[in-house]
Specification:
This protein has 309 residues and is mainly beta. The chain is built from four helices and 17 strands. The two termini are 23 Å apart.
């Protein structure tokens, strides 16, 4: 994933981001700048901020999630009680986790049960810049599946949509789709559209239609982009591209026509984007996490989530 400096390419950025959005009937420039600053809702202070009722999507299915945080006297630890309701499947699962420290914003290995079946949630990440958001990952049958949550008093209505079927699921009918959301609670935007700017590195005088992925951290005014030839996505299996940021379809190095630009590193900020996936049951939702590494080789993971607009 490549970072581009908005100060150095302002005209190109405005043309590709704002201009294309207006042309495609997407977001207007006012909508992109009117968001409330992330810190306005309050940053992370303690694990108690997990408490509440949350609305969102589990791999795209409509769901609610309730968390209660109970003290464990005389210690300073807490016990968390979970109730997950899959509204589309009419299923309820409960679980708990004990001895959670007060500085925890990333819960791991949560087990939920309904008496006859269990679900394992590998992680639930409370966004630290705005604690009205949680992003997570569940495990089932060897696969991993995204979920995302917004505190119920500020949650938007559930947005029904078709499942993820192939690479066209990234886009709307006009060849572009915009997604608004949050990266660790900061306002963010994800845009995907058809482009034709990527040249063949083996033949600099030719170019082919591409699909361009562009992500903006709006509060920090930082943008990242990635492009891949459309013909490669056309030939890929849905399971190979639902998380395109870390697992772009592999090409045969002996095939001079096959080429993609890997999208994994966010080098300028020391971040990695290992998992940002479209939800399989509803392509309107995209969520996952980033990894931040500081100069002391300390890494932390942070939630990220988007909803199609």
């Amino acid at each position: 994933m490549k970072e581009f400096d908005r100060r150095l390419s302002r005209r190109a950025a405005l043309r590709s981001a704002a201009g294309a959005a207006l042309a495609a009937g997407g977001l207007g420039a006012g909508a992109l700048t009117a968001a409330t600053p992330a810190a306005a809702a309050g940053g992370f202070q303690s694990v108690r901020q997990f408490q509440g009722t949350w609305r969102g999507a589990q791999d795209g299915r409509n769901a609610t999630f309730t968390i209660r945080v109970l003290p464990q006297p005389p210690s300073n630890f807490s016990t968390l009680l979970f109730t997950f309701n899959d509204l589309d499947r009419h299923e309820t699962y409960t679980g708990h986790q004990e001895n959670v420290s007060q500085d925890t914003f990333d819960l791991r290995n949560i087990v939920l049960s309904n008496g006859s079946a269990t679900k394992e949630w590998a992680t639930l990440k409370l966004h630290t810049w705005n604690t009205d958001y949680i992003s997570g990952i569940s495990r089932w049958n060897g696969g991993i599946y995204p979920n995302c949550w917004t505190r119920s008093n500020v949650a938007p209505a559930y947005a029904p949509g078709p499942g993820f079927s192939d690479y066209t699921s990234f886009l709307n009918n006009g060849g572009r789709a915009d997604y608004i959301g949050h990266h660790d609670g900061r306002n963010a935007r994800l845009s995907v559209w058809r482009s034709s700017e990527l040249a063949n590195p083996r033949d600099p005088f030719s170019s082919k239609p591409t699909i361009r992925f562009e992500m903006w951290d709006l509060d920090r005014n930082e943008g990242y982009y990635y492009e891949i030839w459309e013909e490669i996505l056309q030939a890929a299996r849905p399971g190979d591209i639902v998380n395109p940021f870390n697992h772009p379809p592999v090409y045969d190095p002996n095939d001079t026509e096959g080429y993609w630009m890997p999208l994994r590193q966010l080098p300028a900020l020391g971040m990695d984007l290992p998992y940002l996936a479209w939800h399989g049951w509803n392509r309107n939702y995209v969520s996952g996490y980033t990894i931040w590494s500081d100069g002391n080789r300390v890494s932390r993971t942070y939630g990220i989530q988007f909803q199609r607009v």
